Amino acid sequence: xxxNELPRFEILSPESMAxxxxxxxxxxxxxxxxxxxEEAHELFRQAGQRVEENIVYFDPEFLxxxxxxxxxxxxxxxxxxxxxxxxxxxxxxxSSVYGAPFVRDGDVRRDGTLGDFQNxxxxxxxxxxxxxxxxxxxxxxxxxxxSRHLDMVFxxxxxxxxxxxxxxxxxxxAADTIAMAEIVLGxxxxxxxxxxxxxxxxxxxPLRWDDRMLDSLFVYCRAKQPVIVTPFLLxxxxxxxxxxxxxxxxxxxxxxxxxxxxxxxxxTPVIMGSFLSNIDMKTGSPQFGTPESAVGQYxxxxxxxxxxxxxxxxxxxxxxxxxxxxxxxxxxxxxMPTFLAGANVVLHSAGWLEGGLVSCFEKYIxxxxxxxxxxxxxxxxxxxxxxxxxxxxxxxxxxxxxxGAAHTMENFRDxxxxxxxxSSDNFERWTRNGSIDTxxxxxxxxxxxLDKYEEPxxxxxxxxxxxxxxxxxxxxxxx
Length: 479
Known about the structure:
Elements: E1 2-3, H1 14-31, E2 33-35, H2 38-46, E3 50-52, E4 55-57, H3 60-67, E5 73-76, E6 85-88, E7 91-94, E8 102-105, E9 108-111, H4 114-126, H5 148-159, E10 164-165, H6 171-185, H7 188-193, E11 197-203, E12 208-209, H8 211-222, E13 227-235, H9 243-264, E14 270-273, E15 275-279, E16 286-287, H10 291-307, E17 311-312, H11 325-341, E18 345-346, E19 352-353, E20 358-360, H12 361-377, H13 390-396, H14 406-411, H15 427-432, H16 438-452, H17 460-478
Parallel strand pairs: 2-12, 7-18, 8-20, 10-11, 11-13, 13-14, 13-15, 14-17
Antiparallel strand pairs: 1-7, 2-4, 3-4, 5-6, 8-9, 15-16, 19-20
Helix pairs in contact: 1-9, 3-9, 4-5, 5-6, 5-17, 6-8, 6-17, 10-11, 11-12, 12-16
């Protein structure tokens, strides 16, 4: 977990904030938001909101009152207390890529497997920059569709000792996730007092919350587990081709979803989500790492802080098919604004490729390297007289060099962050060593990391109970 102490990059004038405020108010009150859940309709009716068929028309002031119930900051527990994190404020936490059906391993692009999922768990455990393996890092397509969520939650809990991410495909899957967390972390009271993980609840943009997402949202909120309420907006497809219009829609969708969480259980932790980019207007394909997506991140950070709610944004997003230069520069173009905007939660921090269709092992390592360097860059800085190293100037004087100076010899081991993926060899040495490019070096590191991985210890009785629960539920689900 990073405490981002540097100033936030805020670009919206008071006049622009007021314009966006008018925009989202008109959407929620005049157009309304669709909820495909009769249970949600009833809660909104009881709260005095107008419901016509599936459309809920909101009083904007009601939404703002619900927002005030959301904790500005909350702690989450990991299996290893040393890996607990705090969401909100100046804190940033990082999770892996999420939701890819395919995996890229070297030159091979194929369906993801449970073995791939397990290896991503091992990588997430091995790197301190990653706070959580996350949720569906890659779909384990060789596992049963009805029970694969059990495999993913089990492996996230056993192969890592960091906090996890809940499954949201169905309400039943969410309930299984909570039951397994209760086994691992000491019961329902324990996880309600300190949540075990967050879950991603996506809006079916534009302006629709579907029944599957809402079923999971109800389950997690009743257990007081945080949900990331996220509009999924690609400008030109799920929102208008205007940053202002898209932001107004995003706020309308997010605020309506957040309001429901507080009607289900007031005080439930919530993270205001943002997934905002644009499509290529020639092809209709999603684009990532664009200037518009960066601007959107700065804006949503400013908006979330104005309403005092934690927010999620950014990640290592890109549209490239390979872990190449495009993948790297688009990811940096997304991750840098993530830091400047001060996002509290960052999904897709490592491994994302091909617009989110692919989880890539080599890209995971490249992203960890980028992430580590950004974390180092965003450390607070304070100079003292000792930092001026006047004695070094006095020793070297005019026209000399500092390579052998006493100050250099005393500090060379830790004076700079040392990238472990980059090559600074001269051409001849690089050639002698095989002319290996960045992706090749990343592959060697990922394989070496897996080779050195050690599973974090778990109480055998707890693990046995977890195994028993998975076996019992697998029979019930798979028949």
